[in-house]
Write a structure and sequence with these properties.
With about 140 residues, the protein is α+β, with helices and mostly antiparallel strands. The chain is built from 3 helices and 8 strands; from the N terminus they run ββααββββαββ. The protein has one domain: Alpha-Beta Barrel (Multidrug-efflux Transporter 1 Regulator Bmrr, Chain A), CATH 3.20.80. β7 and β8 form a beta hairpin.
Amino acid sequence: MSHVQEQGGFAVVGLSKVVRNDDPAAIGALWESFHSNDVRTKVGADASDDVYCVYHDYKGGFMDPYRMTIGYRVLSADVPEGLHRADVPRQPVVIYEVKGPQPQSLISQWQAIWGGDLDRSYLADYDVYDAADPEAVSVKVGVRS
């Protein structure tokens, strides 16, 4: 199930890498690096509890390279050494609530999005992993207004 909502801009600080959807090993390696480093402590006291995965700096469509940043939503502009800041702009987004075993449920949702007919903006899309429920992810896809 999905719905459209206007989302305000915000920043996420975390680990980042340019990846492609046809190279799942690189995406998996970034997640492995995120889980093996204490990113939340490095980000600092204003880090969100939920984990954010931001897809941004698209070089074209969903099969072209883009930057993936995994980290925490922050209030401050500070970026600790070795981390990257992703700025998510104010934009309308289509929201999908994904429940079930991860990452399989999330992968299935993204495959459905790629095969769908959304008028995507390709400014920034993001997933929000609920800190209280490891099987709940909110997918937010930027669309043109």
